[in-house]
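Why should sequence recovery work at all? Because a backbone constrains its sequence more than one might expect. Tight turns favour small or flexible residues, buried strands favour hydrophobic ones, and helices have their own preferences. The token representation captures these environments compactly. In the example below, the structure is given first.
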């Protein structure tokens, strides 16, 4: 390190190249969060189903996904799933599918906690008013549960931004992959990956702080 000469000018010279990767990172994270919110709701409803088979399916999906490494899941989806199903699956789609499934398993727990936190009296009142179980859930339970789960869902978005960097392993051109490509051509990994780490921090840290403040305010209500 004593003879190493820093060349931070490599960053502004290649900023556009790196920022296209950041755009991919944020796009992947946003799309994945939307899909994971839907998938998590499905898994949560399966977990709480009164039918044993559906409940078993929901629990099994959640346990398998939560207890295996996400990197292994991504590699399985990218390399094994196309072979098993005989389909062509590009790296971008594989990453979105993998992150969506992984996040769905954790968001399902968030939803379940939110649904169970809704007072039983509210459901009973809905029944007294003549609402069907489906109407009671969609009009009374779900809106309250979603309000309670918003801070944890936002926290999942922060996690997704960081997990999206795993796309570099399967050649998705998000910002980490862009950094790897730039480092290979310029031989400046120290400057490049330091800059990428700072970018992740400047995105994730303010979001994490905002979520903590949000949770404190909600806990006081």
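From this structural description, the recovered sequence reads:
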């Amino acid at each position: 390190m004593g003879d190493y000469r820093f060349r931070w000018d490599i960053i502004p010279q290649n900023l556009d190249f790196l920022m296209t990767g950041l755009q991919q990172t944020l796009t992947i994270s946003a799309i994945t969060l939307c899909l994971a919110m839907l998938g998590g709701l499905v898994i949560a409803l399966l977990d709480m189903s009164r039918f044993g088979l559906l409940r078993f399916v929901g629990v099994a999906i959640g346990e398998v996904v939560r207890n295996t490494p996400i990197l292994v899941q991504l590699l399985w989806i990218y390399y094994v799933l196309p072979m098993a199903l005989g389909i062509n699956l590009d790296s971008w789609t594989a990453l979105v599918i993998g992150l969506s499934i992984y996040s769905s398993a954790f968001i399902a727990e968030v939803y379940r906690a939110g649904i169970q936190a809704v007072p039983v009296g509210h459901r009973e009142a809905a029944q007294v008013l003549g609402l069907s179980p489906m109407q009671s859930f969609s009009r009374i339970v779900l809106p309250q549960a979603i309000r309670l789960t918003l801070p944890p869902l936002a926290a999942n978005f922060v996690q997704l931004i960081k997990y999206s960097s795993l796309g570099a392993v399967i050649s998705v051109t998000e910002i980490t992959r862009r950094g790897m490509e730039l480092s290979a051509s310029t031989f400046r990994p120290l400057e490049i990956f330091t800059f990428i780490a700072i970018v992740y921090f400047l995105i994730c840290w303010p979001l994490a702080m905002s979520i903590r403040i949000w949770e404190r305010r909600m806990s006081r209500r």
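A few observations help interpret the result. The chain has one domain: 10-219.
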